[in-house]
Amino acid sequence: MNLLQIVREHARRQGLPLPASVASSSDGYCQQARGLLNEFCDDLNTRKLWQTNVRQASWPSVADENQGPLSTLAPFSYEGIVPQTTYQHSQDRLMEPLTPQEWQARKVRAFVGPYTAYRLMGGNFLVNPVPALGDTFSFEYYSSAFVYYPGTSGSTPSPAVYRRYWENDLDTSTVGPDLAIAYLRWAWKREKGFDYSEDFVKYEKMLLTKSARSDSPQPVSMDPGSFRSARPGIVVPQSSWNLP
C-alpha cells in the first residue's frame, strides 16, 4: 500500500471522506495525516536498527586520506555503519575502526602499515594509510529512510529512491503498511483529543511483533572460535570437500 492507499484506509476506518490525493492536497485531514506519517518515520528511527533499512555502500577508492563525505558514500539517510562490515576488497580484509587516540598516534608518527584502518570524523570517511587509486571499499549501513518511492517510467521517468519522509502518493513504507495505519489510528485520535489508549497499545504490540520477526538472529556464543566470517589465513570449509 502506498501513501494514498494508507490514508484512504485510515479515513475509511474513521468514517471520513476518502481523499483523491494526499501529497498534492491542501485538505486539512490530508495534511495532518501526512504529517503524522512523517512522525511515524521518526518514531521508527528511535526504536531499533531495522534490517529492512540496512543499505550497502561501495565505492572505488581515491588516493587520499579522505574518501569523501558519508552523505555521498551512503546517500540514503545514513545513520551508522553496521559493525564488522567494512572491507577493503583488494586485500580481502576487514577494515578496523580507529579510536581518536589511535588515529592521532598514526598521524604524529607518520605511520605506514600493511593494513588500512578507518575513522569517521567531521562527517567524512578517513583511512590510513592512504590507499591506492581504484581499490574497492564497502560497508553496510543503517538508514533512517523509511519511505521508498518506486519511480515512474514513460515520457518523464523518475528514478526509484529511498527517503526520510513522505512526498508522493506512490511512496511506500519499508516496514509495511500495517504499522503505518496502526500509528495513524492512535496518533490522529491524540491530535483530535479523543481517547487513543487502546489503539496505542495495539500499535506497540504490533511494533514489538514485527520488530522480533524482521531479523534473523544468530546464536549467542562466548567462544571466539565460533566467528564464521573469513579471516586472514587458510580457510577450510566445514563440508563439501573435493576429495580425490
Question: How would you characterize this protein structure?
Answer:
The chain has 244 residues and is an alpha+beta fold. Helix content is 32%, strand content 18%. The protein is built from 6 helices and 11 strands. It has helices spanning 3-14, 28-45, 70-73, 100-108, 177-192, 197-214, and strands at residues 54-60, 66-69, 78-81, 87-88, 93-94, 117-121, 124-128, 136-143, 147-149, 161-163, 172-173. A hairpin with a 4-residue loop joins strand 4 and strand 5 (93-94). The termini are far apart.
Which terms summarize this structure?
244 residues; 5-stranded antiparallel β-sheet; 3-stranded antiparallel β-sheet; alpha+beta
Question: What is the helix tally?
Answer: 6
The backbone outline, from C-alpha atoms, is: elongated
Overall mean pLDDT stands at 90
Strand content: 15-25%
Which ranges are low-confidence, i.e. pLDDT below 50, for 5 or more consecutive residues? none
Number of strands: 11
Derived from helix and strand composition plus strand pairing, the structural class reads alpha+beta
Q: Roughly what percent helix?
A: 25-40%
Short précis:
With 244 residues, the chain is of the alpha+beta class. The chain has helices at residues 3-14, 28-45, 70-73, 100-108, 177-192, 197-214; strands spanning 54-60, 66-69, 78-81, 87-88, 93-94, 117-121, 124-128, 136-143, 147-149, 161-163, 172-173.
Write the layout of secondary structure elements.
Layout: H1 3-14, H2 28-45, E1 54-60, E2 66-69, H3 70-73, E3 78-81, E4 87-88, E5 93-94, H4 100-108, E6 117-121, E7 124-128, E8 136-143, E9 147-149, E10 161-163, E11 172-173, H5 177-192, H6 197-214
Antiparallel strand pairs: 1-8, 2-7, 3-8, 4-5, 4-8, 6-7, 9-10, 9-11
